[in-house]
Fold these 4 entries.
Entry 1:
Amino acid sequence: MRTAILIVAAGRGTRAGGALPKQWQDIAGRPVARWTLEAMSGFGSLAMVIHPEDQARAEAVCVGLDVRLVHGGAERSTSVRNGLEALSGEGFDAVLIHDVARPCVPAETVQAVLDALQTAPAAAPSLAVTDALWTAEDGHVSGTRDRSGLFRAQTPQGFHFDGILAAHRAFAGVAADDVEVARAAGIEVRVTPGSERNIKITTQEDFSRASNMLRGTMDVRTGNGYDVHAFEEGDHVILCGVRIPHNRKLKGHSDADVGMHAVTDALYGALAEGDIGRHFPPSDPQWKGAASEIFLKHAVDLARTRGFGIGNVDLTLICERPKIGPHAAEMTKEMSRIMNLEPDRISIKATTSERLGFTGREEGIAAIATATLVSA
């Protein structure tokens, strides 16, 4: 079946605390929404319903992923309907509707829902209630309830696309979830196995639990890169892809972008893949005068092919001149474009060597970079 994945992320998440809605808060080094998108990305075409005020933040979180963003409404059911309407007419057979606040969903939980949709019009994961149930009044137990046949609902909840779209179009009122909407339309929903890992982040305590789960599956790599290029006659330098007027230029086999070279080597180092020279030998004439963007994109693509995301990059340029500060924002923007990485994960700064050594004598520029890769 051709499947759409609809992530519901338009809520405000106030019970979780913090300055931002919970889906945009960091957990184990990444925003909650990023973890959720990556967990669901292998199962279909991604779409995410967001609050209109969160457009810029959502775009940053989605960098490197193919995600359609749709504006939601005041209620969850309205947001889901908006998402379904945006996807209608595109030939989807099925849709998985998933809460953004469930970033730890196991792949087997998702697959079980998809498998059930082969023979059922709808399916959803759940866990049987195992604790005793009480009622209470004025702070005291007032009675008990039979837990037989009770289940804790989870997501993703899966449906044949046309059926759930029609159900949402016909539904009036507020629904707790999409199973309620489906049942109101007479759609039978099959129960599939849920998972204790598939927690929904609601409170600060949930952030801690989810963080421990996500950190336990990560492979974190750190690499360093160092590069030096001497000056020669010229009228500009290229640093981090930005042309900067100067009374000298940097000498090199390629465009001599010393900053980009250091970052590229840091990525290769984290992957234990040597350096630029291994992948792009200076003895090969095809790389004469080449744009260093080629090298950096290769390192980035290699990391992602190996299953790593880039946690952050920190670059220091060491020179007396040119002054880096006035160009740092443009350099960050260009590196962000090349790497498909959020700008707030890229640090570009400069220092001098207090007139000591070859950089102090303005004979060239040195650069040192550190990159962190994270694999879930």
Entry 2:
Amino acid sequence: MQKVQETAEKIRTMEIRGAGRIAKAAAEAIRDYAAGLDVASMEEFSARIKEVSNYLISTRPTAVSLPNAVKLSSKYSSANVEEARQEIIKNANLFIERADRALEKIGKIGSRRIRDGDVIMTHCNSHAALSIITTAFEAGKDISVIATESRPRRQGLLTIRHLNGFGIPTTLIVDSAVRYYMKDVDKVIVGADAIAANGALVNKIGTSQLALAAHEARKSFMVAAETFKFSPSTIVGNPIEIEERASDEIVDPALISDLAHVQVRNPAFDFTPAEYIDMIVTDIGIIPPAMAYTVIKEHLGWELGEI
């Protein structure tokens, strides 16, 4: 249980960040917990697995990759403790392997939509979006990137360091300069923390601003997302909860302690309507937002949303 608690804390504090990395860490935690769980009865085994699953899921309410990873990894059908344990270990390993392959597939598929000379704008620090960009660059395409700072956690600094390592010409801008620079952009590529059944995107706060500016300027807006980032719970009517983080990520509490009429809000994500999304690049191919329902039904299953 100690390792599960350590993983959960790293996810909660964003030491482990990014929807894909969160998913893999959760799958590993479930796998290792099941492997070391010493119980005699199936009833106790089931209760302990459920307890740990719920504990991990509660750490970050918005990133749907987390509950999907936990639910896919912790599935079992056996009524025998040892057989159920082996099912969980197998399912978790399959999920981790699939997550690793997904990024490569997304990179190859999405890079085909990048043209020589493109200027690409990206937001936050999405491994899926970066896979498209770096794959296109390594294929010999002459591209450059405009990366947002992505306040308040400034994940854009991770993005520019990653791109610099590949030798990709990159410009860092403040979030509020998105509309100003959109005239210089050919494509916008962002990641996803969740995609709803109606094709709406939940991603790092400020993503909807990029989508709106791209729509106004008639620039292509692409989302890069593994299939495990689609939200089964939205099929059965459950909304995606937007996580609100501590105000001290934005401002030192001491600076506003005497301001009795001021509150600070810090939503970590926002919604981008499907109509502002041109395509979603997934590990099973490029799809329009309207196909989100099909991806959930055929590749994740209704039952994940009903748990």
Entry 3:
Amino acid sequence: MGFYAVQSLNALSFSMLLLLTGLGLSVVLNLMNFVNLTHGSFFLLGAYVGVYWLASGAPWWLTFPVAFVAAGLVGFLLERFPFRQFYARTHLMQVLLTYGLSVIFADLMRWGFGAQILSAEIPEALRGVVFIMDMPFPIYRLFIIGFGAALAFALWFVIDRTIWGAVVRACVTDRGFVETLGLDTRRIFTAVLVISAGLGGISGALGAGILSAYPGLDEEVLILALIVVVAGGLGTFRGTVLSALLLGFAMTFSKVWVPEFSNVVALAVMAALLVALPEGLVARKVRQV
């Protein structure tokens, strides 16, 4: 029982990384109807920031605000140009633009940070293990679970339970009407993109402690995030949560039971889910503001 309890916590910690990354992608898709394939680049940038910040000996708890700011700044610049010119275009055009940018960013980060695998130093306060049913479990992974859940709840609360979230949803429903009220929808969309990018940066900084940072990590994470968003139901918060949990547990336990086919089994589970539920775990509904 102890072994499976520890593996379940491992799956939950990995699911939290998938959830935060997927939510960053889903927020832009849901609130702006924009497909942003540069999101994996925000994750990798956050991972590199985490590695170098922790290696510098600076306060570890500042890693996440710094990663948020770094990725958010890139998101801000991208939103100003060229994203803003592609909001009204088709999803195919958005995919071509953002995928091309992700390739450029991958080469820039390889040039700036090198091609080697960089491991983040776990903060002293989060080192060590706790024993669960006589089985050791890293404290850092418990931190990922708690921090990730708190951050996901905060995002949900802001989007679903605040005036600002209502205004953002109104911008999507009827942008012209919102502008007649004197609100600058361009600033609102910029804020959404910055939050999404910053969330990707925080996810990368969190994941650096267990995944390290290396060229290609952005593509791996992006693929998993896309699976989470699509399988959950495009742009739905609850669906993204359920899909992240399902994929996290499928990948973790497939590595335990069939390690040689772990990725195949996990992705087959998600493919079967999409065949059974083409609209995802939670079908997207028209939101009322």
Entry 4:
Amino acid sequence: MSGKTPFGPEGWTPARIGDLTGKTYVITGANGGAGFEATRILLSKGARVVMMNRSAERSSAAIDTLKQEFGPDAGVSFVRMDLAALSSVREAAAGLLEAEPRIDALICNAAIAQVATQQLTVDGFESQLGVNHFGHFLLCALLFERIEASSGRIVMVGSNGYKMGDNRIRFEDLNYDQTYSAWNAYAQSKLAQMVFGYELQRRVQAAGKNVEVHVCHPGASRTGLIRDTAGTVTRVLAVLLSPLAQSAERGSWPEVMCATEEGLEPATYYGPTRFEMVGPVGACPLKPFVLDPQQARDLWALSETKTGVQLTV
């Protein structure tokens, strides 16, 4: 089954991007996979990119690789941030705001997936929910005014995994203390990230703020997302299915599109449209429960309480 694309039979491609000189993009989890490929594309169009990553060593290696490709003056830099620790997110956001006078887009790309056994962050969150949602919620809140002042965008990189769990936020058992499942906990974390993205989109529009918010997914892409966290069976399955997946570069196209393309629609889920896994990038089907307004309001209030920040739009 294919979704619709207004970009012709080939879908959206980076060839549609114009000159990005003077623009600054911030990407979480950009030292490998789709985040790294998104950085490459944006740099190739003249943009500056700030990578927010946990590993300083891997970030330095990624920057070296990019400077070999684009030259020693390539506009790429790194801010250390661990989304699993709210204190690290706060410190990183403060440093970024001090260094960067504008943010044309924040791409919330970083994620962990299929953590085999229940792990808790230092703040007491189930690890996938903590990294994928709460860490990004806090980061968006801390950077929102700078993004708004730049007439910028916020891009949530979701996942089709949102459909594989309970199809709701388990407010009564957020950490899956009763019956932990790597897949269900991951599905909840990506659902939360997407529910937040669409609620932020609605609030921004209602308030008349000069910020765009879009939600996308990479489809089935060959990245190292589950390499360090998943159980043996999941890792083996990923290897067996990898020939059917697309490259990490193609997986980055939806997030780059959401950060740069004009005229994108609200309440729309962008990504590969061929079985929502590969193929032309355009609009994909979206399950109605993602747009449930009561669930979104409850999650917003909970997220403000858990992160200790108010995101007033």
